Amino acid sequence: MPPTTETHNKDNKTITQTQIAQNETQNDISPVRQKIVNDAKQYLGVPYKWGGSNSSGFDSSGLTRAVYKLNGLNLPRTSREQSMVGYYVPFSEIQPGDLVFFVENKSQSINHVGIYIGDNKFIHAPGKGKSVQIDNLQDEEWRKIYKGARKYLK
């Protein structure tokens, strides 16, 4: 679950890590990160398809892999494999374009991934009967199964 611990800003006011993440995303982001976000958004509404990796249908890792490939970056095929490459990112430092990972099963192995787009939101292919959509990391459904974030860009 994303941490919501408190910290203090330079004026000694209490803010949560969630607010820190929101504040950081309001700053300028690199052109590559912005392009990843924009490329991901072009797939909004594309249906979920298990094993899918193109605009006729995506699963979660197929979406992330396709978007990164458009930007010259190669990711492994599965969400579990994607979670093992790149660099760990604390929740308070997630930037647009980073990948966020989830566990939706009893085995506790990572089996879902999305692309962070800023303001605690991420884009993903959620599952059977749904389409690529944007959700909020702070929604309880996602908060309780959140397992971490990875970056592949400097």
TrEMBL record:
Domain of life according to the entry: Bacteria
Family of the protein in this entry: Belongs to the peptidase C40 family.
Protein name stated in the entry: NlpC/P60 family protein
Domain NlpC/P60, residue spans: 30-153
Region (Disordered): 1-28
GO biological process terms held by the UniProt record: proteolysis
One GO molecular-function entry: cysteine-type peptidase activity
